[in-house]
Amino acid sequence: MEKIIQDLGDFINYVGECGNKKYPEISEGGRFDKIVYRGQANKSWKCIPKLFRKIEWFENEKNIIDEILRRCPNDFEGLDAFEKLVKMQHYGTPTRLLDFTGNSLIALYFACNDDTQKEEDGVVLLCNIPMFYESEVPLSLLLKKLFPDRSNNFIQINSPTVDPILNESTMAGIKAKLRNERIKNQDGYFTLFSYFGEYKDNLFNPLEENNCIQERIIIPSDRKAGILSELNSCGINQAFIYPELESQIKEICKKY
What we know:
7 strands, single chain, alpha/beta, 18% strand, FRG domain protein, 11 helices, 7-stranded mixed β-sheet, FRG-dom
């Protein structure tokens, strides 16, 4: 369903209405459905990871990762494969992760806060996604093509709830550990797209095919600035979303 909102009050009221709806169950086995949100500054953008938006990125995924690890080894020391991918994602690397939030206001911020898309309507997607706890998913095995590790050879998969994830046309919803302030503040969740086949313009999108997207909340372009101001009054701003020092300083300087 699609809904156009005009201000923060509109948005909060509609999200509240959605909370009273019962969406179709998607999960099987040990997974659990979770309502999460994703904000996109342009409503026409596909809901797919950055890696799949450009053929050059997709075909050079391993090269990009290897070069990052070569140039910045200390930044990734002691991290497992998934932790490395999450960190690369947060610093702008095109990865096969798509991030979501459990906080609808965080998603609304992302739908409004992109200067390159000021003239475009934004969207907040309300999604019902089957989730695993991070500890339940063989992430090292899923990512072994990107982060080879001899220990991967000894991982055994016996759970029928995990087997479908290894299908290269699907995705895994991950409830990640709250490793840092950014993930904590953003109430972060991820989906890991496990497709390693050939690049296609019309790539199979599990979110669309499995009817995970339940609601599309449209933010008109001329309402974005006002909504950002309202969110700032609630403490949802750049300094909260990105608690690193650089963002703190930028937020302070906006006042003067």
